Structures are given as C-alpha cells and as structure tokens.
Amino acid sequence: MAGAPLFPKVDLILQPTPLHRLDRLSEELGLDLWIKRDDLTGFAFGGNKGRKLEYLMGEALARRVTAVVTCGGAQSNFVRQLAAACSRFGIKFGAAVMPLPYEFEPILGKMSSSNGNLLLGELLGADIRMLPNGTWEELFVAAATMAEDYRNCGEVVFEIPLGGSTPQGAYAFCQAGFELQEQADPFDMVVVASSSGSTQTGLTMAFRGTSTRLLGIACDPEPDMPEEFAALAAQLDSLAGTNLRLTRDDFEFNLDYVGPGYGVPSEGGMNAIRTLAQKEGIFLDPIYSSKAFHGLLDMAKKGELPHRVCFWHTGGTPALFAME
C-alpha cells in the first residue's frame, strides 16, 4: 500500500514526525527505548488523529460536503482536531458528546466540562451538543439525529464514525507504519495506545510480515475490539486490492491497563505521566498514551518486553488541562 495515495488527501500535518531515543529511561529499564512523536504532528495541538484527517477531509472535499458530524467523549481529541480541520476548509462541524459514554455500566470519574478539548472546540466555533452520560449506542443515535437535523436544513452531510475509524483512518496509519520503517532500523516491538481501532489496525497491517511486533494497549475495557480491527482490515483489503486477511488473532491487544474505564485517568497512567515528564521532559495525555506507557513500564520491569522497543506517542495532551 505504499506509493500514490489510495484515497483523496489534503495536507494538514508535519511529517515525518520525530523519532528519538529515550536515553535515561533506556538505561533505567535495560532497553533500547525510542519514542515516535505523533504528539508533534503540528495541527490543532498535534496528535495522531491528524494523519487520519488528511484522508477524511480529502474525501469531504471530493464529495463537496457542507457539514461534518461525528461523536465521542466530551474530551475527544478527534472531535477537537476534526473541528479544526472543518474550520480550515469552511465546512460546518457538529458533534454529539457525553462526558463518559459507556458500553454496559456507568463509569465513575470526572473530567472538566469546560476546559481542555471542550474549550478548544468552543474557540473553533464547533456545534458541540453535550448529552448526559449514557451508552455508546445512545451516543451514536444522537449523532445520527444531529446529522439528520443538518440535512433538514439543506446541508450536504458527511457522517464520520467515532475516532475516524474508517478504512481511510487505517490506511493513514498503515502509511505511518511505513514512515517509521524508513526512519530507523527495525524495532523488536512497537507499543501504542489502542481505542477505536484504526491506529492499531493500520500499524498492524504495516508491520505484517516483518520482524516487528505491534502491541496495542487498550484504553477501552472491551475485549472484543480485535474483531472490529479485523473487520476494518478486511474493508481496507477490499479497497486496496490487498490480501492480508487479518483475523482477531493477528492483533496483539492488552487489556491490563485500562484502569477505571474509558475516558477516566488511571493511577498507573498518572504515574507514567510523571515518569516520562521527569525523566525525559515529555508529556503524555491522561486518557490514552499514559495508560499505554504505564503498560510499557510495567511490562519492562517484569521482563516481558524485547530489547529494542518504540513507544508511539499518539498525543492528546490538551486533556491534561481538563483534569479535576
């Protein structure tokens, strides 16, 4: 899937993003530990979502849409960056959000209802419709209703699913995996926070057939997510004319570091934020990258990691300013 882009594309981010060694932590952990800095993509406070948006906005422009609608948690990094991308291209943007959406049972925890990504969305003029906490299915229905409201007002609407987890999103991260392969000698393992799916799906596809293992550390307490990764990979296979045929067993997915639930910082994650900040001067976010880095640190101390490891920093640091 390298070469000319498979999908329409716009330029939003700075790439390749930096890759560098974490010298102090490498010595402390007995690893050759590196970090891929997708927190420095340079668009709308950075983060991995910008890679996906280059293709999603390419499609939006090709389809001549006038409004984009999505959904997510109230502190969604994707909502923030998608709102900024729509502002750049003069497209209306709306999102249905909940403070802490859940799959089965309500989640105990709290993040600010006015700061962090929500403040940035307000500055961008986004139409953010805050709903009381409920299930993900209720959130998806609310987003569909919002899209229909826009259509009734004459808008040409593009509905983008949670986190940009579409074939375009997976393709963007397949290309990102190739980017890393061009930057350095092979790693034994790449560790990344895993949530809605397209990041881990694309990276897994990029490293398929290489000596590098791709480990996704879950930020959602949903053990069946690899089924969704495999379905997304199959969609991209079909569009790209490839034949990887990934199954759920092809996705290495660790659920041990989710903490209290989606959207809620964990104690281990907060300690990981302090560790990376105090050892290397780099900040993680409290919802995604901190939990993944907590997993990396814990597994390293248990001797469960290979020697040469790259941590993929997915960004999201504005959420640090929404903690209460």
Structural write-up:
This protein has 324 residues and is α/β, with parallel strands linked by helices. It has two domains: 19-48 and 166-322, Rossmann fold (3-Layer(aba) Sandwich), CATH 3.40.50.1100; 49-164, Rossmann fold. Helices cover 40% and strands 16% of the residues. The chain has ten helices and ten strands. Strands 1-2-10-7-8-9 form a six-stranded mixed beta sheet, sandwiched between helices. A four-stranded parallel beta sheet has the order 5-4-3-6, sandwiched between helices. Strand 8, helix 8 (225-240) and strand 9 (252-254) form a beta-alpha-beta unit. The chain starts with 18 loop residues before the first strand and ends in an 11-residue tail after the last strand. The mean pLDDT is 95.
Key phrases:
324 residues; 2 domains; 10 helices; 16% strand; Rossmann fold; alpha/beta; single chain; four-stranded parallel β-sheet
Give a concise summary:
By secondary structure, the chain is an alpha/beta fold. Helix content is 40%, strand content 16%. The protein has ten helices and ten strands.
